[in-house]
Write a structure and sequence with these properties.
Distance between the termini: 81 Å
Number of domains: 1
Order of helices and strands: HEEHEEEEEEHEH
Shape: globular
Largest sheet: 9 strands, antiparallel
């Protein structure tokens, strides 16, 4: 070997580089060929009655309309029961732009909420399925009629719904999306479903404490979720009341 010649590149390293290059090309080819989103996994119609709760339609806020892409679909309801308990539910369905769907932890602080903790919890639905949802503990100061400021604690539960799949994790959702695009030519039209409720202990007579509020929301989700999440093979024009 002359002093100016370069050492030979090991054959194994060449094969690895070639394999990675082919994998990249194939991934780009398959993922870029998936242009049409799959049928959404949700029905954009929140039920009026969930257990002893009665729902009332709410319109998206001006902030939501401004921040989210124009083709984002949103349905919202506020729910109350005969004992004065209050819950809110909403479903957000992505349009062509993927930024419609994001972790709610990003927008809750913009609404004045502090995030105190979060973890995944299982919820068994009335149709026999079990899903994982993210339970977020939040709080913010509120002022009563006397001008006194108190801290209101609440729970915010959410999960993501794709085509035949659910997850409580934003990272898992992104991984599923990439995996299904490359291997199954499936472009999920993601949605997220959220249910929230305040802890009213100390704010009203017989108000529920933290544990009772968690149980109430879990029971609500168990009955509500099967009414907004499509079953496998369900037609896109199905509407439930």
């Amino acid at each position: 070997m002359s002093p100016t010649s370069s050492p030979p590149i090991p054959t194994g390293r060449i094969l690895v580089v070639v394999a990675l290059g082919l994998a990249t090309v194939l991934a780009f080819h398959f993922s870029s060929s998936v242009n049409t989103p799959t049928q959404s996994g949700v029905i954009m119609n929140l039920p009026t009655y969930v257990g002893d709760f009665i729902g009332r339609d709410e319109v998206p806020s001006e902030g939501e309309k401004y921040v989210l892409p124009k083709d984002t679909e949103i349905v919202k309801k506020s729910y109350t029961n005969s004992t004065g308990d209050m819950l809110s539910a909403n479903v957000v369905l992505a349009g062509a732009e993927k930024r419609s769907i994001h972790r709610p932890e990003l927008c809750l602080p913009a609404q004045g909420w502090s995030i105190n903790g979060e973890h995944e919890v299982p919820v068994r639905l009335v149709d026999g399925r079990t899903i994982s949802v993210m339970q977020v503990s939040i709080s913010r100061p509120i002022q009563n009629s006397a001008g006194d400021t108190r801290t209101l604690n609440s729970y915010y539960y959410y999960w993501f719904v794709g085509n035949g799949i659910t997850t409580a994790s934003h990272v898992t959702r992104l991984l599923i999306n990439s995996w299904d695009r490359v291997l199954h030519h499936k472009n999920h039209r993601w949605a997220y479903v959220a249910v929230s409720g305040p802890i009213l202990e100390g704010f009203k007579r017989d108000g529920k404490d933290a544990e009772e509020t968690q149980s109430m929301i879990a029971d609500f989700i168990a009955e509500m979720a099967p009414q907004v999440m499509r079953k496998a093979g369900e037609k896109a024009d199905t509407v439930r009341n």
